[in-house]
Design brief:
alpha/beta; 11 helices; Peroxisomal Thiolase, Chain A, domain 1
């Protein structure tokens, strides 16, 4: 099943070209928050999207920032796929919080219009894009966007749909910073995935969308396939509301299911896009799970996380990282864990990519996403034509 179009808005700017340049440049976008009042908060740093490229979207950036970001990213994805909006059969969107920032911007005593609630988000985006697809909205924390991708993948492979617009979007807000901080999940300075001195994650905002098509449908309309989605896997830890199962059993199960669903072997995976939040509880659990799945190869397969550069973009993070992996395949580079200095004790021999790596050939990516509530989602993506050589 082909991905034929991609689009994104990230703290590096609007568009996939800006995202690619930023990843390859190896800089972090985590800075003091400018977009809202952070007085009284312990963590006052995050990765914000610059407003410039969003000014042309048909939304109020103060009250509808999430929709503006989604509109731009989805529009870029359809444009890069050369796809008319009326050809979209299905739309699957993930968002952990939607327009929660808009509630904070309202004057005291004012009521938020119902059409700005998360339940109305997909309908308003469809209206702005002038499409009328079957629509699904996912709000299951940090796996939301990737869960939408898996749902669209299933609908297309059983023949219910031919073409889907899939994405994730989230903005940062005072409520989000306060909530994560109350869970002791935020670092007071930087997010350092897989670093032994890591002290928590930091939040970012982003939107990532892609066009997913059934193979014959894409070929009949002359589309240019960018990569193949091969399979996905889901699992639930059933362990704790916020902390992962320390055994890594849930994460491991989702990875194994994704690999089995893709019809490949663990030996085919040559790049891991980690969830890599930089929190004390997530990172070593994830590496143990990767090690269990990949076996002896775990030490030689490159592993990266984008969160040191763009923060944790929650519901958007899964799809945004799939786009990062696709760009890595196309442009022959691997993003770096740029804020990591010393690897976690016991994992020094793993190939944790600390700086952007160039001239790297990537054929098969495994993308991990783990969310609050112990929800796990993993997607396997291959370079175009990968499935035909298996």
């Amino acid at each position: 099943m082909f991905v034929t179009g991609i689009g994104c808005v990230t703290p590096f700017g609007t568009g996939t070209a800006a995202f690619s340049r930023g990843l390859q440049g190896g800089e972090t976008t985590l800075k003091p928050v400018q977009g809202f009042n952070v007085e009284g908060l312990r963590c006052t740093t995050a990765a914000e999207v610059p407003d410039g490229g969003l000014a042309q979207t048909p939304f109020d950036l103060q009250l509808e920032r999430c929709l503006a970001m989604a509109h731009f990213a989805a529009g870029e994805a359809m444009e890069s796929a050369r796809l008319d909006s009326k050809a979209v059969d299905m739309m699957c969107i993930g968002s952990a919080a939607g327009e929660i920032r808009a509630f904070e911007e309202l004057p005291r005593g004012a009521t938020m219009p119902a059409f700005r609630a998360l339940t109305a988000f997909s309908g308003r985006l469809a209206e702005s894009l002038r499409c009328t697809p079957e629509s699904h909205m996912f709000a299951d924390a940090c796996i939301a966007g990737l869960q939408g991708l898996g749902t669209a993948f299933d609908a297309i492979r059983v023949g219910r749909m031919s073409c889907a617009l899939v994405g994730g979007v989230d903005t940062i807000s005072r409520a989000a910073l306060s909530g994560f901080d109350a869970l002791h999940a935020l670092s007071p300075d930087l997010c350092r995935p897989f670093d032994r001195s890591r002290s928590g994650t930091q939040l970012g905002e982003a939107a990532g969308f892609l066009v997913l098509e059934e193979e014959r449908h894409s070929l009949e309309r002359g589309a240019n396939p960018l990569c193949e989605v091969l399979g996905y896997g889901l699992s639930t830890d059933a362990h704790h509301p916020t902390r992962p199962d320390p055994s890594g059993a849930g994460a491991e199960s989702a990875m194994r299911r994704a690999i089995q669903d893709a019809g490949i072997s663990a030996d085919d995976i040559d790049l891991v896009s980690a969830h890599g939040t930089g929190t004390l509880h997530n990172d070593d659990v994830e590496l143990r799970a990767v090690s269990a799945v990949l076996g002896e190869r775990a030490r030689s397969v490159p592993i990266f996380s984008t969160k040191g550069q763009i923060g944790h973009t929650t519901g958007a993070s899964g799809v945004v990282d799939v786009i990062a992996g696709l760009l890595a395949m196309q442009e022959r580079f691997i993003p770096g864990i740029v804020t990591m200095k010393e690897p976690i004790e016991g994992f020094e021999s793993f190939d944790l990519v600390s700086a952007p790596r160039f001239e790297s050939d990537v054929c098969c990516l495994m993308k991990n996403a783990f969310g609050f509530g112990g929800m796990n989602c993993v997607v396997v993506v291959g370079k175009t034509g990968f499935s035909s050589v298996l």
